[in-house]
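This part of the workshop introduces the protein records we will be handling. To make this concrete, we reproduce a full record directly below:
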Amino acid sequence: MLKVGMAGIGGISGAHIPAWEAMEETELAALCDIRQECLEKYPDKHLYTDFQEMLNAEQLDILDICLPTYLHADYAVQAMERGIHVICEKPVSLKAEDVERVYEAARRNNVKFMVAQVLRFWPEYELLKEIYDSGKYGKLLSGSMSRLGGIPKWSWDNWMADEKRSGLVPFDLHIHDLDFLVYAFGKPEDAKVHRAKRPEQDYFSVVYEYPEFFVTTEASWYAAPYPFTASFRFQFEKAILAFERQQCMLYEEDGTVTDLTEAAEGDTGGINLPKSDAYANEIRYFTKCVLEDRFPERVKPGELRQVIEILRHL
């Protein structure tokens, strides 16, 4: 059985912890957070408020990093230098050069590393890529992707509102959709950006242009308590695939309408994310790679670097 530790017991950990607990191949043994109150609801675990102390005391096989963005790369390298496999929440960093740094550390220490870009494992988004790759409904003509919500006020030390630590909406929220675009369709040829950015809120809209289609995207942290919503709609020559209001629908040109909605599973914690088993999917995939001694090719470093470089230049 693989022994797992987790660093950072904030919002997204509520999606990761149940996934680790559900697998027979792993034991979530140790949790670390500088906030003692975040650890108190897990009395059955080994609890730490100091990361180095956890690494010294535990014989971990896997570390799951759910820390603030600006800490990801440094903590990942520290763990891999000790021979620990690492799965790390997105983004790996705000700096493109950190992609090579963490992957070089993985190679040097013969361990597995993966950035948890969850949309690559989200059933409805996986279906979109399958339809595009197959060409079943003809060429892709256009797309739209939306990821909207109120500004997060629950983060430790309000780090998410600090551009130097989080990168704000582009790096924390929009990165999901951009990463999927690069993964599914490759690097866009051009991007047209509009942004309404103020200290108390941030709205971000980009049209990504490809040779034969374009994708309109938007992401927000509104000042008002707008409920979190994530959706997409893609126009093919012979069908529309739409994921809206947690329903995935296929509308074909002959009038056929098919509900492709996946049953929601799991608990994503208290940050108002859509329920899905995608977090469990990515964690199971990473664990299988560790057990089978193969590097996680589902998330490629070249694509991660492209995404960061695009965001840095928008």
